[in-house]
Amino acid sequence: MSSLVVPDTSPCAFCDYLSGARPYTILHREDAAAVFVTREQRGMSHLLVVPTRHVPTILELQAAESHTVVDLVQRAAAAIDRVEQRPGISVWQNNGMGAHQVIPHVHFHVAGTVDGGGTEWGEVTELSVSETEVIASRLRPFFSPSTRS
After folding, report:
1. Fewer Cβ in 10 A, N or C end of the chain?
2. Separation CA 98–CA 115 (nearest Å)
């Protein structure tokens, strides 16, 4: 039994995005996981990798899901590297409110670094879905089957 305390938000925003109940840019989707373009761009092409099944924290991921998620984290990083050509790529993941988890659905952040290094931790402007679709259009070619490494 875990001692993690997760946020109590219902319905789950990520589940709503995956089901199409709420509009959001889904860059790539497989049976076990998907890649979103977040509306809060904290880096150069800030993406989220999520399991398609509702899973509150990393502790509840099944082995097959974790393999797919990590594969997509690596593919997201490679796409960002090719498109953004930044000097660094940040990957982070939070579990429980004590670690600042806001949405109770496990997700990995993948972002190219900003000018000066790191990622933006302060306030950022929320982009529209049409703006995140533009980001997706630059990255989507790197998620086609022919570009798998």
Report:
1. N
2. 29
Q: What is the model's pTM?
A: 0.94
| Torsion angle, alpha carbons of 82, 49, 127, 86, to 10 | -30
CB count in 10 Å sphere of residue 123 = 7
- How many residues comprise the chain? 149
SS3 label, residue 92: strand
What structural domains does the chain harbor?
Answer: 13-144 (3.30.428.10)
Gap between the terminal Cα atoms of the chain? 37
Tokens coding 40: 């809060």
pLDDT value at 149 more than 60? no
* Cα-based distances in Å from 30 to 50, 58, 145: 10, 19, 12
pLDDT at 37: 98
